[in-house]
Design goal:
single chain; 295 residues; alpha/beta; D-Maltodextrin-Binding Protein, domain 2; 2 domains; five-stranded mixed sheet; 12 helices; 10 strands; 39% helix
Length: 295
Amino acid sequence: MSKVRVALDWTPNTIHLPLIIARDRGFYKEVGLDVELTDPSQDNYSKTPARKLVEGSVDLAVCPSESVIAFTSSHKKIQAVATLLAKDASVIASLPSYKRPRDLSGRRYASYGARYEDAIINHVIHRDGGSSPATVVQPPKLEIWKALQAEEVDFTWIFLPWEGVQARRANVQLSTFHLKDYDVPYGYSPVLARDPAGALSDDVLTKFMIATRRGFQLLRDSREEAVDIMCHHCSEDREMIRESLSCIEEYCVEEDGSYGTMKEEKWRDFIDFLKGRRLVEELTVEELFTNRFVQ
């Protein structure tokens, strides 16, 4: 058996379900892989998945595309090999008293501490006519959603298929703002990333993606079985998981139905956005991602 260590970007949720299904249903084992999934609650998010990847403690990291860009621009090259979501499922979410991004000028933003995150948030505020940047605060990452619900902060960044569904079910009122509406061509989030110079061989990675695709196919074809599996890995009830899966479906695949593939144009547009704000220098887009393990 070949060992593959995967660092998740959050506590297990429906975004990770193709990986969880492939492990729990033995799809990885069938292709000779012993896959370990670790989540950040195990070390209180002391290090990001991308940081663990460049340090060599994991073989694959679930992370946003900006982590790939940030580490590569710092000469610690990592490469996206697949996307778990083909379309952006994230939004800026605020307390309901704020009706537009410009209302968030000077307000408390709960930041995850990502390299370009705060600049993107302030771009959205400015693009909507805001007068001043957000006041950035950094609660413990895994407590950010609770901090917003408790009104300890005014806004943050969430995923619609998870926190968005949780909010709707709990009748928590939020204002939400999509990045694309404020001229942010946001990249892929999350992706699976590797260290091209790491120990993970191309053959093992190809097998990993074949088994992961089987996990995704089971999710689509056998929804209740997928719900059963997810129930063993989180504290949410079955109806919450069903709603999350219904919500996430539209974000998982490209228009042509392909799973895991990425478009050069999307990477290029996001990098051009970051370059236009002097957040990155020149990068070779082709080095940042590859589709050869998902085709």
